[in-house]
Every structure is written in C-alpha cells, then in structure tokens.
Amino acid sequence: MILSKLSLKNFKKYKEFDIEFYDGLTGIIGKNGSGKSTIFEAILFALYGELKEKGSKDIIKNVTANSKDELSVLLEFEFEDLNYKILREFRGKNLTATAKLYKNEKLLVTGVKDVTRHIINLTKMTKDAFLNTLFASQKELTSLSSLDNEHRKMMIRRLLGLEKIDQIEKYLKQSITDLNRDIKSFSSFLLSIEQVDEFETNINKHLESLEILKEKIELRQKQKEQLVVQEGISKEKLSSFEKIREQKFDFKNRIKLQESKLETVLKNINELSYEKKHLETKKVEYESKKHLKIEYEKLQNSIKQQDNLKEKYLKKVGLIKERDELRLAYKKQKNDIKALEEEIKDIDFIEKKQKELKSTLELYQKQLQDKKIEERELRDKIAGEKNLINDTKSKIEMIQSLGKNSKCPTCTRELLDDYDKVLESLYKLIHNNYEKNILTYESKLEDLMKRVDKKQEEYDKVIIEEKKIHSKLNILNERKKDLLKCKNYLSDIETRGKSNNDAIEKLQNYIYDEKLHQELIIKFQNLKTEYEYLIALETQLKSFNKVIDSLQEAKDNKSVLSLQLEQLKNEELKIVYDENTHMLLKKELEEIVRKKDDLTELLHNKKLQESKINGEINSIKNRLKENEQQKIKLQTKIEDLNDYTKLKLSMAEFKTNINSKIAPKISSIASDMYSKITKGKYQFIEVSNDFDFYIYDDGKKYPIQRFSGGEVDLANLVLRIAISKTLTELNGSSQVGFLAFDEVFGSQDESRRLEILEAFHTIKEQYRQIFLISHETEIKEMFERLIEL
Fold first, then answer.
1. Within 403-434, where are the H helices?
2. pLDDT band for position 65 (50/70/90)?
3. Among 165, 264, 456, 670, which is disulfide-ready with 718 (CB 3.0 to 4.6 Å)?
4. Residue 75, in any domain of the structure
5. Is residue 580 included in any domain, yes or no?
6. What are the residues whose beta carbons fall under 8 Å from the beta carbon of 494, sequence distance 6 or more?
7. Which range marks the domain in which residue 432 is found?
8. CA pair distance 738, 25, nearest whole angstrom
9. Number of structural domains, the chain?
10. Residues 441 and 306 in one domain
C-alpha cells in the first residue's frame, strides 16, 4: 500500500485540509496541537471506520461545524499497481455513517461494514495489526526497554499478534481443568456392579409377582362377564314391565285430561248462552238511537271547515305583520352597507403598506442572523485561544515543578540547558500569539455588538409599526366581512318580501266567522257523549254473530269429547299389569348389580397393584438406562480430555517453534540496522525467545539497560522497525509499503539524529514511504520531503 492523497472536511481540528504523499523519507513537522498525528488518525479512520481509541462520533467532528455540515475523509492509495479511493462520511444531525470504495475510479463496494471488510481482505490486516505494523510512537519505543520483563513480553506479543496463542493456551488449560472436574463428578454417580445385579434380581421378582396377579385378574374378569350377561337379561324383563306400567298410567292420565276438557266445554256453553241473551237486548237499544250518529258526523265536518278558514285567516294576518317588519329591515341594511363601504375604502393601500414592512423585517432578520453567526465564530475563536493558554500554562507549571532535569512534554528528552529556553518560548507563545489573538478577536466582537444593537433597534421600530398596521388591517377585514353579510342579508330580504306579497294575495278571498264557529263547537260537545255510547254499543254488537257460532261449536265439541272419554275407559280396562311381580324383578336386578360392582372394585384394586409393580420395574429400568447414559457421557469426557491434552502439547510445541523463528528474525534485522547507525561500534542485538534484549559490545553480551539513554533510544528504534518488518511478513502483507513514526528522535543530539535518518534511508528498499512526525522545527532540513503544519 502506497499513500497518494488525503482530503479532510470537518475532521477533528481540520475544517478543510488536503495533503499529497510522495515516495521517500518525509518529515511532518509542526508545533504541538498543529494536527500532525491527526493526519494518521484520519488515514486509520478512512481504512477501518474507527479511530485508534473508540469513542463518540461527536468527538470526531470539528467543533466549529454546524449540525448540518457533513464530515468527510477521502483517502487515495495504490495497491498492487491499482488505484483505490475510500470515502467515509457522517451526515445530518444524527451523524449517519456512509462509506464507498473505488477501484480505478469505478465504484467497487458501498456500506460501512462492507468497505471495512473489503480493506481487511485486501491488506490482510485488521485495524490492530495495521496499527502495530505501520505506526510507532516515542512512548512505545521507550516501553521496549523500560518495562519489566513480564509487561515487555506482553507488549511485544501483542504487537506481533501472538497473544492469541496465549489465549488459546489459557483456554485449553481451563478446559482440561473443567473436564477433570466433570469426569470426577460423573464417576461419583455411576452404579456399582453389585447395585446393578441387585436391580436385575428385583426386576425378576417383580415379574413373577406380576404373572400370578394377572391370573387372578383374568379369573375375576370372567366372573364379572357372567354377571353382566345376567344383568342384561333382568334389565330386559324389567323394561317390559316398565312399558306396561307406563301404558296403564298413560291411559289414566288421558282419561283425567278428557274429563277436564269436557267440564270446561260445559262451563263455556253456559257462559255463551248468557252473553247471547245480553247482546239481543243491546241490539234493540242501538236501533232506537242510531240516527244520532249521522247528525254527529255532519257537525264534525262543519267544524273542520271552520278550523281551516281560521288557519288561513291567521296566516294572512301574520304575513301582513312580517311584510311591515321586512320593509324596516330593508331600509336599515341599505344604510349599514353605505357606512361600511365608506369605512373600508383605504384597505388596499394598507395591505400594500403591510407587505412592504414584512419585506423590511425579513431583510433585518437575515442581517441579524448573519451577525449572530459571526459573533458565535468570534467567541469560539476566543475560547479556543484561552484553552491553548491554559494548556501551555499547565505545561509550564509541570516543567517548573520537575526542574531542569525534567523531560520535554512532547518528545520526552531531558531539557537540561534548554530548560529556560523552553519556558521562554512557552511564555512568548502565550503573550505574542494567544493573548494578541484574543485582543484582536475581542475588538472585532465589540465593534460587531455595536452594529448588532443598532440594527436590533431599527428592527424593533419596524416591528412596532407593522403590528399597528396589522391590527388596523384586521379591523378593516372584519368590516369587509360585515359588508358581505349585509349585502347577502339585503338580498335575502328582497327575496322574502316578494314571496310574502305573493302569499298575501293568495289568501285575500278567505272569510272567517268566529261566532258561527263557536256555536258549532258547543253543539258538537253536547252530542259527543251520546255518540260515544252509541259507538260502544256498535262495537259490542259486532261480536253477536261470533257468540252464536261459538255456542254451536261448543255444543258439537261436547258430543265428541263424551264419545272419546267412553272409548278411553274401555281401552284402559284391557291393559293387565302385576305390580308385585314388577317389584320382585327390581330386587333381583339390584342384587346382580351389587355383585358386579364388588367384582369391579376388586378388579380395580388388582390392576392398581399391577400398575404399581410395573412402575417399580420401569423405575429400576430407567435407573439402569441412566447409568448406561452416564457411562457414555463419561467416556466422551475422557476422550475430550485426551484431545485437549494433545492440543495443549501441540500448542506449546507450536509456540516454542514460532518464538524460535521470530526472535532470530527480529535480532537479524535489528542488528543490521544498529551496526550501520553506530558505525560498527555495536555489531549485534540479540532478542531471546522470551523477548529479553541484549547488546553485544566487544564480543560480550550485555542487558540493554546497561547502556546510555541515546544508545538505548537507537536500540529501541531499530527493534521496533524489526518488529514491524517481521509482523508484515507474518501477516503476508508484503504490499504495504509505508511506515510512520511519531516523535522518535527523543533525546538524540544532532549527530544521532543524522544517524537515525541514515538508518531510515537504509530501509527504503523495503518501504517506499517513511513518515517521521516531530515538533522540533530545527530538523526540517534533514528530510528529502517536508510537510510543515
């Protein structure tokens, strides 16, 4: 992989930033906080969609960016002579993530996870492997020699990815322990040979008892079947007697019912005869008074005619009154319309004035909003400068508290003679840069606030004027609505007036005599009582013919019922029923049922006993079956234990084999570089299988801690490069062609720095691009290419 170009938008401290990468040794130089390390964080983010340390998406976005502004990282690189391009973005308030991967300008993959998966397959490195192989910091280099044996070993194994072997080995040990525990537990639950024999003997005894019990059940079952046959015969005889008795009782009940019907018919004949005689008397009375009905109906029709005339007369009077009211209302509406038209004559002019004021308000509002944005940007800049002052003051206090022997807070080298220079440069940075910038920003802010106040005053005046116009326009619009209502009402009055005149014209010919009307009503009321009595008589006489028919029907029914009653009595005498024989049959059946029930209960008890024995047999068989299953599980656990033990031994052998290959490889690469850097003073660096470091001096082996700080820093550097080289080969990532080191010069003097740069020149054959990050501006002349921030 060769880096080509990086473009950032709203990523961390960069609002917008573009950088091109070239082959060779490149220095990335800038002051603390200038964003040097951010460049490689962006590269990592572009490739894997994550930073070195996972965190909130809000941390990634530039603090000055608006919620609608997008965050984007575009990385272009070469891989196996092909051009690739990755674009990752966060969009919207929720920072929704998107990703696209292009190959030779053609879209290859989309989607955050799919792009990351494709990069891992392409480079054959995960995010952690990529970091451990291609990036190194001064802190990491120092840790190689300063950590104790155990932690150094853990760190190097993590860099090389060997901690996975340790995790597998740990898992195998725990699994073997768990299997031994399970085998012991399973063995404790197995039955002994004596217990198995005892269980089998008990099963045989239970089977013998079960055979005897089955013979007894079979005998009792046959006896019960005989009783069931006897029960059926007795029930059949008893059923025959029951039917005869039911027939006897049925005829007796039918005779009683027939006698009751005949009695009811005789009573009905007497009642109908009396009612017939009464209706004949009423009929004579009705004939003498029926002329009153004709007279009453004539009076009723005359009153209806008078009621109709009265209704027409009252309607005409009401219409005349309504006509007078409509004339008054018409005159009033005409006057109201004239007044309202005069009142709203200026409404168009006022509406035009309101539109002009609203346009002015929108313009002022936009101007104020722009100034608010400008104000927020100035305040953010002031806050940013104050934060830089606080950070610088913290560094000053830390250096002062440690004294002249303290280390540079960025590169970790000892300050010594540079102590006062460092403090002075930090104070100058505060006074000449940060505080000066704050004064400039505050002056701009003060001038801006004056302009904002003036514009706000103009805006408030226009708002007051617009509110007055708006209020007046609301009143006129209400008057306009009232005018429309008045015109509609006037039209309604004209329509109603025309309809009213037509209705009065139609009712002119109707004449009503109230005196005649009252006389007819009095006469009608006097005749009403006699008329109602006559109608009642008429209603009663309507049933006369029906009563005659009902009387004849009752007499006919009496003859039929008498004949039927006589026939029922004769048939009832023919049925023969012996109650004593019937009772003896009942007792015989009860005795058979009792014996059958006793046998049923006995059989039930025997079957319960049989079920109990079967249950005991099944229980013993289940216990023996569980014992066999437990044996199988135990055997499986034993086989698993053997497999895990073999795997553990193989893993230990594999681990020893890997260590024996990796350590010599790192030693070879590191020794080569260290010899060149030290001009042959130190010929060999040895890395043991346990990752302890030794330097050979005059043919003798010494621990790395014996040597001075500068020599140790150089040794750490070549060891870290050797580890990266070895890790690249382990990952099979031979196409990854760059390295990046952050603040690796440490406490080296100028000659050592040159030696380090020479060392990096020696590995340019393996890495086309090498990037060195540093805050020390005095070394920028030492690089082939320079990126200055």
1. 419-428
2. confident
3. 670
4. no
5. no
6. 330
7. 344-506
8. 10
9. 2
10. no
